[in-house]
């Protein structure tokens, strides 16, 4: 038997009494209205017993345990299916978080939303309106954001969306983006008015190639939007180390035109062939977007950029001082072994790792006064807050150090030829980082010493703004007292907005041709509003800013989990259960 989680559907009773009578009456009314509009369902009879009818397409979406056109047949291959999607058989039947906690329009059953009749979608967000058209978040008063872009999201079959074990998904950024499109008021269900089309494909899985090869033709066959411009306004998020190049070469050759027309949002900004890393260009400036890695490591709210942390340090009479020069701690050699203690070189194995950057920085600078280049340290946070500059190299592909060190207020030193950093060249990285050509690694110390103190101070002051662009705070909670208006999600949206407004402008000129984008890039459009976003950690970052734990405790009985995935709309919604009513900083 499949097990449900503890979140009650809207319109049903809850054992803990967390739902008021008025809420139940409203939910029942909405459910009855939605069900009445689909008396003559477009799906096979009996679909809703185990599955969910996508009334728009007449497609009966089955959970993992059932198959068939009406989801009435027990899946004879359930053990293999569960293993394929990251579960043991017992885990596959156990409670698991559901996307947006089904928006109160269905039951969360083993991590999959079993929507009430008349509702469909991965999170039960869709239904038929009174005019017969598709409606988003019926009963919540969803209103599109003004003066921004509109994004259509393809509701794909559950075997490519909701069947996965969310607890084991690595970098589920496509879910975060999908979720925030709704709470930010940017999602449209009218494909004819959309500026962009989002394909919510999980690319961080071994099944990604076969699913992509199936999904893209399926989209062309099912919806009319791709063929209108051959997919040029379609978006896919790929979070793999090497971006698009993680897809098999044979597939890329066979589907070259289709894959090339898509705009890829990836972490890998390689735009020029690199002979040491043997990396081929995978990023096309002006077409693709380099996006930051989704950082979920706890503890970054202890950053000196957090006003509460800085105030406490000053009150103790020990304000943060960056008296040391340069820091890096982490893997140095490609074979994961430490450098030779005599030659200070790595073994001649995996010399392509980090394009040789980490190895060369260690060789030339590990013994230099004021420099710490280590294979590891138990005092990482202490070290990173006591140095002015921090190495932000690549690894086996894209890196994440540029995000980590920026969040901690350490000026990133980026060294890898031909690789763009997150939101580069749209954002002027030279304003808050030190890019160093690989050929200049031996004289890195001279480059840093030659920087005037006033320039270093200016770069440090700009990091508070730059760090906001690097973190998905509206989904994950504040870490430096921000309210999410300049976060990574909103930066993606701003870049897409500028592209729509100035389609022929090179990305490095966005700050010159679009005044709003210039102000956005410099965090000059107001904020923060401490009442908008909850804070990570146990302490408030502003007196009026609740912690995310405080928010969750108020409504935990009506959510299917405590992570952003099940928190309808992301953590910007705090204790608000109606996704459409979440705070919107730009309205």
TrEMBL record:
It comes from the Eukaryota. InterPro entries: EGF, EGF_extracell, Exostosin, Exostosin_GT47. Gene3D superfamilies: Laminin. Keywords: Disulfide bond, EGF-like domain, Golgi apparatus. This is EGF-like domain-containing protein. One of its GO terms (cellular component) is Golgi membrane. Disulfide bonds join 43-53, 62-71. PROSITE patterns: EGF_1, EGF_2, EGF_3. Its main location: Golgi. Belongs to the glycosyltransferase 47 family. The keyword Metal-binding does not apply. One of its GO terms (molecular function) is glycosyltransferase activity. The keyword Cell membrane does not apply. It is a single-pass type II membrane protein. Residues 16-26 have a biased composition (Acidic residues). It is found in: Golgi apparatus membrane. It holds the Pfam family EGF_2. Residues 1-28 are annotated as: Disordered. Residues 39-72 form the EGF-like domain.
């Amino acid at each position: 038997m499949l097990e449900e989680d503890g979140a009650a559907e809207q319109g049903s009773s809850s054992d803990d009494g967390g739902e008021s009578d008025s809420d139940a009456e409203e939910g029942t009314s909405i459910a009855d209205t939605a069900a009445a509009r689909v008396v003559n369902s477009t799906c096979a009879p009996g679909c809703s017993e185990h599955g969910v009818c996508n009334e728009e397409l007449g497609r009966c979406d089955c959970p993992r345990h059932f198959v068939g056109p009406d989801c009435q047949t027990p899946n004879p291959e359930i053990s293999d299916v569960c293993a394929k999607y990251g579960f043991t058989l017992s885990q596959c039947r156990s409670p698991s978080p559901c996307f947006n906690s089904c928006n109160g329009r269905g039951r969360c059953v083993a991590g999959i939303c079993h929507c009430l009749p008349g509702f469909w979608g991965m999170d039960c967000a869709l239904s038929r309106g009174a005019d017969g058209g598709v409606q988003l978040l019926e009963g919540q008063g969803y209103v599109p954001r003004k003066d921004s872009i509109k994004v259509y999201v393809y509701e794909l079959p559950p075997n490519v969306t909701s069947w996965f074990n969310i607890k084991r998904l690595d970098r589920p950024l496509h879910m975060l983006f999908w979720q925030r499109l709704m709470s930010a008021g940017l999602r449209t269900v009218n494909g004819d008015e959309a500026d962009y089309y989002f394909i919510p494909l999980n690319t961080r899985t071994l099944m990604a190639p076969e699913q992509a090869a199936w999904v893209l033709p399926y989209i062309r066959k099912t919806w009319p939007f791709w063929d209108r411009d051959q997919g040029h306004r379609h978006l896919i998020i790929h979070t793999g180390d090497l971006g698009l190049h993680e897809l098999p070469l044979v597939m890329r050759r066979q589907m070259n035109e289709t894959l090339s027309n898509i705009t890829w949002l990836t972490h890998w900004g390689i735009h020029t062939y690199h002979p040491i890393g043997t990396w081929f260009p995978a990023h096309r400036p002006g077409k693709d977007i380099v996006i930051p890695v989704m950082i979920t490591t706890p503890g970054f709210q202890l950053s000196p950029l957090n006003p509460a942390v800085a105030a406490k340090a000053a009150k103790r009479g020990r304000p943060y001082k960056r008296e040391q020069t340069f820091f890096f701690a982490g893997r140095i050699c490609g074979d994961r072994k430490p450098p030779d203690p005599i030659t200070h070189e790595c073994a001649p194995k995996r010399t392509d790792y980090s394009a040789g950057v980490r190895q060369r920085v260690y060789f030339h600078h590990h013994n230099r006064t004021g420099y710490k280049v280590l294979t590891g340290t138990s005092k990482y946070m202490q070290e990173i807050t006591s140095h002015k500059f921090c190495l932000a190299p690549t690894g086996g592909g894209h890196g994440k150090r540029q995000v980590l060190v920026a969040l901690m207020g350490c000026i990133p030193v980026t060294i890898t030829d031909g690789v763009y950093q997150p939101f580069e060249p749209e954002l002027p990285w030279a304003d808050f980082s030190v890019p160093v050509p690989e050929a200049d690694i031996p004289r890195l110390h001279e480059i840093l010493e030659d920087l005037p103190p006033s320039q270093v101070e200016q770069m440090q002051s700009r990091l508070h703004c730059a760090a906001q662009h690097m973190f998905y705070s509206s989904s994950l909670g504040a870490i430096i007292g921000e309210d999410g208006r300049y976060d990574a999600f909103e930066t993606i949206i701003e870049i897409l907005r500028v592209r729509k407004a100035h389609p022929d402008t090179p990305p490095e000129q966005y700050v010159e041709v679009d005044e709003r984008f210039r102000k956005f890039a410099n965090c000059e459009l107001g904020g923060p509003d401490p009442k908008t976003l909850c804070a990570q950690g146990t302490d408030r970052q502003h007196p009026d800013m609740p912690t995310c734990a405080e928010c969750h405790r108020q409504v935990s009985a009506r959510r299917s989990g405590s992570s952003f995935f099940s928190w309808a709309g992301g953590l910007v919604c705090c204790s608000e259960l109606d996704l459409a009513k979440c705070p919107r900083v730009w309205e």
